[in-house]
Amino acid sequence: MGARRFTPILLFFIFLSGSFAIPGKKIKQYQPCKHLVLYFHDIIYNGKNAENATSAIVAAPKGSNYTILAEQNHFGDVVVFDDPITLDNNLYSKPVGRAQGLYIYDRKDIFTSWLGFTFVLNSTDYQGTINFIGADPILVKTRDISVVGGTGDFFMARGIATLMTDAFEGSVYFRLRVDIKLYECCQSKNVIDKGKNHAIDRYQIQRTVEDKDEDS
């Protein structure tokens, strides 16, 4: 009786150990369906640079100055931005779009922020928007945030954006390198409609040729 009970248990553990010992099993590596690298430049308003500023403090701890980021890792500051996007790291390069959104300094004990923003792209290469959201531990060299959607050429996009602080000048200017890898890429409605129209045109041409052949 005891031997009968022991046998199924033994077989179970043999099967379990074999399942963990499969040699050469590889984890599936996903390849991005679209990859691009862009830069955006943030110049915060400090009370003296209204003409050049691209961002401004819109909320701050009680008693704070809205032209100076708060002490203690800027905790409590909310900054809204409308920053130029470029293909390279030159602030004076021709913009290909705007980065629009906000960042919130959300911790007292460490220099970090929370980001929510959109890339509004309008160039010969790209038309549309990409939406980003996530925590930004600024002192880490590279950090990832989520791509949660888009429009136009980036219709319903999903993926990861790797951020790197490419330049930093006090509390007035910083530049972010944004390495975007999309793992879900859908055709926009405009592209789909163009494809349908192209197929209809080809069908009409084919019918015309067939009708001419029948007449002859």
TrEMBL record:
Domain of life (superkingdom): Eukaryota
Keyword Secreted: yes
Main location: secreted
GO cellular component labels: apoplast
Entry's Gene Ontology BP terms: phenylpropanoid biosynthetic process
Keywords: Apoplast, Secreted, Signal
Signal peptide range in chain numbering: 1-21
Transmembrane segments: none
Compartmental location: Secreted, Extracellular space, Apoplast
Function: Dirigent proteins impart stereoselectivity on the phenoxy radical-coupling reaction, yielding optically active lignans from two molecules of coniferyl alcohol in the biosynthesis of lignans, flavonolignans, and alkaloids and thus plays a central role in plant secondary metabolism.
Quaternary structure, from the entry: Homodimer.
Family according to the record: Belongs to the plant dirigent protein family.
Name recorded for this polypeptide: Dirigent protein
Organism listed in the record: Tetracentron sinense (Spur-leaf)
Lineage: Eukaryota, Viridiplantae, Streptophyta, Embryophyta, Tracheophyta
